[in-house]
């Protein structure tokens, strides 16, 4: 009987998850249906916004020709390099500022002021500094991904339960032990939120960087099509 109850409970849980997943896709699907119908009816001019069916047809054509996969792989490599540099730097600096009071006093205010500067507005300066090669594109992506990881790392470390830190101090743990077994596990959810935000922001910075003096990538492909 106990096994039957557990099986029934698991079945209900799976069914509930499927229903929730279906509901999440309801609004996007309705938007696509309305978009397609409005395009076919002529309410939305093709010059303003092509129909989803035309977009899918273009996607399939570019995929079969190999053009889209080639540009996508180039963009993916740029995004990966930028995220690796920016997220690593944001995590390390956030770790330093979050765990050291002196670093917090010296660095956090400056970083927060720089964070208010729109990254994409620095594009002319980036071209001046790095030229139109790969370095400038990777720098823009790294800069865009740096701040979400930094802010969330600092927030996560400051949100660690003070009682756990006090207990670790009472037991006489070394700083490295406290860092590895108390601070980082407690801050990990917040750090992962920052990384998740960085992944989305990286693609925005990527497309913009590739639309300027690039010969490959998704951004270049969009500008060339325009």
Describe this structure in words.
The chain has 226 residues and is an all-alpha fold. It has helices at 2-24, 26-41, 52-65, 67-99, 101-115, 123-130, 134-158, 162-170, 175-210, 218-225. The longest helix has 36 residues, at 175-210. The protein is flat, with a radius of gyration of 24 Å. The mean pLDDT is 84.
Topology:
Elements: H1 2-24, H2 26-41, H3 52-65, H4 67-99, H5 101-115, H6 123-130, H7 134-158, H8 162-170, H9 175-210, H10 218-225
Task: Write a compact overview of the structure shown.
With 226 residues, this protein is mainly α. The chain has helices spanning 2-24, 26-41, 52-65, 67-99, 101-115, 123-130, 134-158, 162-170, 175-210, 218-225.
Mean pLDDT over all positions: 84
| Count of helical stretches | 10
Shape: flat
Derived structural class: mainly alpha
Q: Give me the count of strands.
A: 0
Order of helices and strands: HHHHHHHHHH
The level of helicity is over 70%
Report the oligomer. Answer: single chain
Poorly predicted runs are none
Rg, rounded, reads 24 Å
Distance between the termini: 65 Å
The amount of beta strand, in percent, is under 5%
Major sheet characteristics: none
């Amino acid at each position: 009987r106990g096994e039957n109850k557990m099986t029934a409970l698991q079945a209900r849980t799976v069914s509930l998850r499927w229903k929730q997943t279906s509901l999440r896709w309801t609004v996007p699907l309705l938007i696509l249906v309305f978009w397609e119908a409005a395009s076919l009816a002529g309410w939305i001019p093709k010059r303003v916004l092509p129909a989803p069916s035309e977009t899918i047809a273009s996607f399939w054509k570019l995929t079969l020709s190999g053009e889209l996969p080639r540009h996508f792989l180039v963009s993916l490599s740029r995004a990966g390099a930028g995220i690796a540099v920016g997220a690593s730097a944001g995590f390390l600096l956030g770790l330093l500022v979050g765990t050291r009071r002196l670093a917090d006093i010296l660095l956090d205010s400056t970083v927060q002021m720089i964070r208010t500067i729109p990254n994409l507005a620095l594009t002319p300066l980036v071209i001046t500094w790095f030229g139109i090669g790969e370095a400038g594109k990777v720098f823009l992506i790294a800069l865009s991904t740096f701040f979400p990881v930094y802010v969330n790392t600092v927030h996560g470390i400051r949100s660690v339960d003070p009682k756990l830190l006090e207990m670790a101090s009472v037991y006489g743990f070394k700083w490295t032990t406290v860092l590895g077994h108390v601070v980082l596990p407690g801050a990990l959810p917040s750090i992962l939120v920052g990384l998740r935000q960085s992944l989305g922001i990286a693609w925005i910075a990527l497309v913009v960087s590739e639309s300027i003096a690039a010969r490959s990538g998704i951004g270049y492909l969009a500008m060339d099509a325009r």
